[in-house]
User: Which sequence fits this backbone?
């Protein structure tokens, strides 16, 4: 069996990254196609090294098998969002948030409400594109600082995107690092919660100094009225939210909790909104449409349709396809042992926890800036550095947290990324204008760097710290 040397390993990995980055950024080729083409190329390298085609297939299937439970979670998440729209759970949550707005504290309230919505839905884009748009309308009416409000929307949206068990990015980070979802989120909270508190404090101080005590909240009230015309609202609509939150706190398996919440939501939808079980099952698959609530859907404003029409298992298929293609790429790459060769060399140079974490941060930021794709920025550093973390006594949940701190929440701060373009277009504020105000997005990264230097909140496995270096007890 042949083996790749260090120069060949760097060449293989570098050529793969360059191909993916240039193909995605310059040629605008779909990420899935780039991953599959790269997988074919690396498979030929693996066969040249002596591996059979069946071994390559077995390795890919093995990685698929490891990812299957998390892929099922992602599918359930899409279904839950659709049914929650059908039952009125998410719209009810939106109306509550809009009713508590105080003009003087619109920035901090925007941050709090968006954080809640994003946590309950698990989607940053969904939160920004729904409640975020409504709150920006309120900000316009109040003549508020639009950049600050937009930054609060982005920060709150990505707070929920990180800590919600319904989040696609959190599930992806847990999948690629073969980590339990709740264990990943619990460790992630050690950087995310302090960043959230800092952000809330900053926005609260802004409110104290604005003196904006008057203004119109007509756009918010109009949104509330339009939602109330479509739905029969009642406190019972919030029950599915508490079921999911209680399941997360009790560390119950995610899939049974989501399926139970789905069943309760379907029952609530039937008794409160009059939507039948068969219709709800179709919504669980295909997503929600306001056509199921009114005989005159054309009378529903486009903004409300955009607010409500989302969810469904089908909406998660693009994410699942990326995950499957990513593992098709990672399977043959692992057989070549190119990463092992690079990591063995790397671990002889960088042996401190801080060095590994800062190296991972640098790789994530470079990849997110180069490709504009969060999945690449999470996948490749995880594959590259995970064994280095474990070999030096650092639990792999450290790298899963780091890639989220450095990739997921940095993406909307870079103007040419998909998230940066989406947020700017959706909120009507240029990326570089709101970036400074999105405190949540960079405060967590600063805290992660502080932890790396001090050793606080760094989970160990079987290694201990000696004179600033990690020594493996094995």
Assistant:
């Amino acid at each position: 069996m042949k083996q790749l040397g260090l120069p060949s390993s760097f060449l293989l990995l570098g050529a793969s990254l360059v191909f993916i980055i240039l193909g995605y950024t310059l040629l605008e080729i779909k990420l899935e196609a780039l991953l599959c083409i790269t997988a074919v190329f690396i498979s030929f390298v693996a066969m040249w090294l002596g591996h059979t085609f069946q071994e390559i297939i077995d390795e890919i299937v093995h990685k698929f098998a490891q990812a299957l439970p998390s892929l099922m979670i992602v599918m359930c998440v899409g279904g839950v969002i659709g049914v929650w729209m059908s039952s009125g759970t998410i719209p009810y949550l939106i109306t509550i948030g809009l009713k508590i707005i105080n003009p003087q504290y619109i920035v901090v309230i925007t941050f709090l409400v968006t954080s809640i919505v994003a946590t309950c839905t698990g989607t940053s884009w969904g939160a920004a594109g729904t409640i975020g748009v409504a709150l920006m309308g309120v900000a316009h009416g109040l003549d508020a600082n639009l950049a600050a409000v937009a930054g609060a929307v982005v920060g709150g949206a990505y707070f929920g995107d990180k800590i919600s068990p319904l989040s696609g990015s959190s599930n992806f980070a847990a999948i690629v690092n073969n980590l339990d979802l709740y264990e990943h989120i619990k460790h992630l909270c050690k950087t995310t919660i302090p960043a959230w508190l800092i952000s809330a404090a900053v926005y609260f101080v802004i409110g104290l100094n604005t003196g904006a005590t008057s203004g119109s909240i007509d756009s918010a009230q109009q949104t509330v009225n339009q939602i109330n015309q479509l739905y029969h609202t009642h406190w019972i609509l919030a029950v599915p939210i508490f079921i999911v939150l209680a399941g997360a706190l009790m560390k119950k398996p995610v899939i049974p909790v989501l399926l139970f919440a789905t069943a309760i939501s379907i029952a609530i939808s039937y008794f409160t909104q009059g939507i039948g079980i068969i219709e709800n099952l179709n919504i669980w698959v295909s997503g929600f449409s306001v056509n199921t609530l009114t005989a005159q859907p054309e009378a529903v404003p486009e903004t409300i349709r955009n607010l409500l029409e989302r969810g469904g298992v089908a909406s998660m298929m693009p994410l699942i396809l990326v995950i499957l293609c990513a593992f098709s790429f990672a399977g043959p790459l692992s057989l070549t042992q190119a990463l092992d060769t690079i990591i063995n060399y790397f671990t002889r140079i960088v042996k401190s926890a801080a060095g590994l974490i800062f190296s991972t941060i640098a790789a994530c930021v470079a990849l997110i800036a180069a490709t504009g794709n969060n999945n690449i920025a999470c996948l490749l550093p995880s594959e590259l550095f995970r064994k280095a973390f474990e070999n030096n006594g650092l639990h792999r949940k450290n790298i899963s947290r780091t890639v989220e701190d450095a990739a997921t929440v940095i993406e909307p701060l870079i103007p040419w990324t998909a998230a940066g373009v989406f947020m700017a277009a959706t909120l009507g504020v240029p990326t570089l204008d709101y970036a400074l105000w999105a405190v949540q997005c960079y405060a967590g990264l600063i805290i992660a760097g502080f932890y790396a230097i001090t050793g606080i909140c760094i989970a160990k496995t079987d290694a201990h710290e000696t004179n600033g270096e990690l020594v493996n007890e094995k």
Observations:
- The radius of gyration is 23 Å.
